[in-house]
Amino acid sequence: MSNLIVAHGGVIPFICHIFLIFFGGFMSLSMILNPNFVKGMGFESVEARFLGRGLGFSVLAITLVFVATLFQWGRFTSFFEIYAVLFLFTLFAFLNQLLMYLKVLKTHDDKPVPIANIIRPLIPLVVIIIRRLTSANF
Predict the structure, then answer these.
(1) 17 closest CA partner among 62, 66, 60, 65
(2) Where are the alpha helices (DSSP H) in 1-138?
(3) What is the pLDDT of residues 8-43, one digit of tens each?
(4) CA distance 128 to 81
(5) What's the rounded Cα separation, in Å, for the pair 27 and 47?
(6) 26, 40, 86, 127: most buried, per Cβ within 10 A?
(7) Using N-to-C axis directions, what is the helix angle for 11-33 and 115-134, rounded to 10°?
(8) pTM, whole model, 2 decimals?
(9) How far apart (Å, rounded) are the C-alpha atoms in residues 123 and 90?
(10) Residue 138 has what pLDDT?
(11) Positions of the chain with pLDDT under 50
């Protein structure tokens, strides 16, 4: 276990990595299995539900790569690229939701954006920033 902590650059980056695995797993399974998840985001069509499942499987794939990098299975030994991809994905998702909340961008149905939609991508974004600031490997 101590080798894993050293490989990740300390205790806090290791805990952040595990948190992102749990958060990504929860969010991906919610998108895949919960038909009301996409409806709660404001999309009520059947097509949007299938799009949410595809997004859920994409997040599940990133989460499984996080698990592989945690235990350094196969050739998954560098996790910097995965963090960069997830950082950009959550940053753009946060900015999109924030701009729709501030009514700079229009929503698809002209309803106000719930504040929960802004906070969801902000959670992993903050965890990635904390991990970056506390890691000894960067």
Answers:
(1) 66
(2) 2-8, 11-33, 36-40, 46-71, 80-101, 115-134
(3) 778 888 888 899 999 999 988 988 888 777 776 666
(4) 12
(5) 19
(6) 86
(7) 150
(8) 0.76
(9) 9
(10) 59
(11) none
